[in-house]
Specification:
alpha+beta, single chain, 534 residues, 20 strands, four-stranded antiparallel β-sheet
Length: 534
């Protein structure tokens, strides 16, 4: 899930208001469908990776989860459920998971999947030559992964093939969320004959998984086509193909939906009111709450954000309520906590800094910049292709300029380049999103902000915070105490302010009348095994 991009329909409200006056008619969901009657079509903004070991963004994950599978998956009840492992046993100390692999599961090339394929997959993703950006985040708990990534081991000592259909995985300490981590693509099983060690999957011929769809054709920045796997273990999908055309422009996506050329498209929250007033579109709009938080990040190792007073001043100069009611049209809920709704440790009354311009200026003066004098010009980076993100970033820098007297601008960066810079911790000030991979506070507080967190891209380090999180990470059998420790840690992070929560996600999309059978979890749509098209 990670940085799941919101592919958006950037139509002006004026354009949307005219949708119900004539034009679409009965052809709204039928036109341009000749020859595509059983092809599920929905646009993608950017398909960044074809390799489950390398993927970081949600749009690409949505493609890959149709092709590949792992030991576990999410159910429609938002709980971890068996996938290629039909069951598992957990040792009394909570460290060793023994997975019982389903018999008869076959790769797309017809070869049966066995336990040694999972051992190969895990060792491949940890191969230092591959340079997976997600291996430590999702698999770093497995004994031996860190050593292999560092080039100090040739295999994973914590992964053992017990027999053809039994795999034992040992982790460093008890972690109640470990099975949730295995739902991430990094551990999706790959076929060793086409996915060699140290080499990234770069073409559809090498995309050999076990999933309900096979990769058929990929033309970068144009289209990805997936064909139904007729031999899928639970039965063939009900659609013949999935087509993911690349449309970077939101208005194009909306027009393709209106003309019936795509069956589903995600929409910008700022446009929702216009859609709701459109006679033809309003009943096709679907809204979903997601456990995701948009925030302003400040790298504490880059001046001037190494100064806690500066970060606190920035936090108090931001009016998240005005952003949600104005820029986002009242759809999104202001975020005052790092842990979002849907996760047990979430609090509506977390002590995030309130909007207080006078106090913000006072803090900035205490930091040595009275009325902003002498403060260096700063750029707020954000990804391209998402008007909501762009508009919110622009509003944030406007508030910083007005309330602190500083020079601040925005900088839009192509998504792949943005990820590279973010991974390298090169962004001093940025606006982005983190979406939960599993419903546990660890996925936010430890993963993002502990000094040992593999997604800590702001350089934050606080020994007290680390101790609280580390203790909670491995606490089993006392969830109330575990949650209390995470809340205590969150209080510290909110005060240190490397993150300023801005708003929680409200996910919106238009779905064609001819579309049914979508399966959903709180993380997003599940693989399209039951989708049907009228």
């Amino acid at each position: 899930m990670r940085w799941v991009p919101i592919v958006v329909a950037v139509a002006s409200l004026g354009v949307l208001a005219g949708c119900n006056k004539g034009g679409s008619g009965g052809g709204f969901s039928g036109r341009a469908s000749a020859g595509k009657e059983n092809v599920f079509r929905y646009p993608i903004e950017t398909l960044t990776k074809l390799d489950p070991a390398m993927v970081q963004d949600g749009d690409s994950i949505d493609v890959l989860q149709q092709v590949y599978e792992g030991l576990t998956t999410w159910g429609e009840d938002n709980k971890v459920t068996p996938n290629l492992a039909e069951s598992w046993d957990i040792s009394p100390d909570g460290r060793t998971y023994t997975f019982h692999i389903r018999k008869g599961v076959k790769f797309h090339n017809g070869r049966e999947v066995k336990a040694d394929d999972f051992k190969y997959t895990l060792e491949r993703v940890a191969d230092p030559a591959l340079k997976s950006p997600t291996v430590l985040t999702y698999l770093g708990d497995i004994v031996g992964v860190k050593e292999k990534v560092a080039g100090k081991a040739t295999e994973l000592s914590g992964v053992k093939v017990v027999d053809e259909y039994t795999l034992a995985v040992t982790i460093d300490k008890a972690r109640p969320y470990f099975l949730g981590r295995l739902t991430y693509p990094a551990s999706f099983v790959v076929a060793k004959e086409v996915a060699p060690m140290g080499k990234e999957i770069m073409d559809v011929a090498s995309m050999v998984g076990t999933g309900p769809f096979k990769a058929e054709r990929f033309e970068p920045d144009q289209i990805m086509i997936l064909a139904a796997n007729k031999e899928y273990r639970t039965g063939s999908p009900l659609v013949d193909k999935i087509e993911r055309p690349t449309f970077k422009d939101g208005l194009t996506r909306l027009n393709k939906f209106k003309s019936g050329e795509v069956d589903l498209t995600r929409v910008e929250r700022a446009d929702i009111s216009g859609i709701q007033e459109d006679a033809e579109l309003k009943d096709l709009l679907h809204l979903y709450d997601r456990p995701s938080m948009y925030y302003m990040g400040m790298n504490v190792n880059i001046k001037p954000f190494d100064n806690k007073l500066v970060r606190q001043a920035f936090a108090m100069a931001v009016d998240r309520d005005a952003i949600c009611s104005g820029v986002l049209g009242g759809i999104n809920k202001p975020a005052r906590a790092i842990v979002p709704p849907g996760i047990e440790a979430h609090r509506d009354d977390a002590p995030a800094f309130p909007f207080n311009p006078a106090k913000a200026k006072q803090l900035l003066a205490q930091a040595g910049y009275p009325d902003g004098k002498g403060f260096p010009a700063v750029e707020m980076s954000h990804r391209d292709g998402q008007p909501d993100v762009k508009l919110v970033a622009e509003m944030l820098v406007t508030q910083l300029r007005q309330n602190l007297g500083i020079k601040a601008t925005t900088k839009m960066i192509p998504w792949t380049t943005y990820l590279e810079k973010h991974n390298a911790k090169q962004l001093p000030l940025f606006h982005m999103r983190w979406g939960a991979d599993y419903l546990d506070a660890e996925n936010y507080l430890s993963t993002l902000l502990a000094s040992y967190g593999n997604e800590n891209k702001v350089g934050y380090a606080n020994p007290t915070y680390d101790k609280l999180c580390s203790t909670a990470d491995s606490m089993v059998g006392n969830e109330a105490e575990r949650v209390r420790l995470y809340k205590q840690a969150e209080d510290i992070a909110l005060d240190d302010a490397p993150f300023v929560p801005i708003y929680y996600e409200k996910y919106a999309e238009l779905q064609s009348k001819r579309l049914s059978g979508l399966r959903d979890s709180v993380f997003g749509h599940l693989p399209h095994t039951k989708v049907t098209l009228k």
